[in-house]
Fold this protein.
Amino acid sequence: MELFLDTADARAVAELSEVLTVAGVTTNPTIITKSGKTPEQVAAEMLAVLSPDQKFFMQVIAEDAEGMLADAHRICSLREKNMCVKIPVTPEGMKAIKAAKAEGMCVLATAIYTADQAFLAAMNGADHLAPYVNRMESLGDGVGQVLDLIQMLAGSGLPAGIIAASFKNVYQVHQLITAGIQAVTVAPDVVWSMIGHPSTQLAVDEFVDAWEASFGRRTFA
Ligand code: E4P
């Protein structure tokens, strides 16, 4: 399983990359506009903290296939390798996904609300598929749609991988990891909630206090 961080906050990425194994970072236009920074600033800051092996995803803004492809060229030129372009699965986006793949770009099909949309994008060559789990949950059975997609891809021989996205809580992430999801992209605050448990720190405090009471120190030796 790969963990991606869904954020425009480079500091949060640097911090979590020290604590966990982070495969890369996804952004979207909303995340970038909310950061209060320009896309250029976000890209520069993110590329400064990512290792060359960590992937970085930015999304096209144009809505027609030709414009999307032009945006995709700009995005891919930001970095020599492991730069991926996110293209929404509108009809124009589907055209752009085919064209971008024909040029060998790394493509993530995004704004996916059904397993069928994702499957069709995989047939067009998308490398990654990002179903919007929480948003799909608001409309029906989001987790169930992703489980269907896992099965559909397994029987298809298509090489596309799922990076499940749009999580709002730890339980949604947990359900998909349990189902064998290949990758998730999760906001840093949700990731921290997955790590943190008050009882873990209490247990550590108890161990160290007992050690200090017996041996007069708070280190092993
Ligand atoms: C990730 O690639 C998606 O853009 C993102 O997870 C969407 O999440 P949201 O539903 O919080 O906007």
In short: Residues 27 and 58 are 5 Å apart (CA to CA). The pocket of erythose-4-phosphate is lined by residues 6, 26, 28, 30, 110, 130, 132, 134-135, 165-166, 185 (CB under 6 Å). The first strand starts at residue 2 and ends at 6.
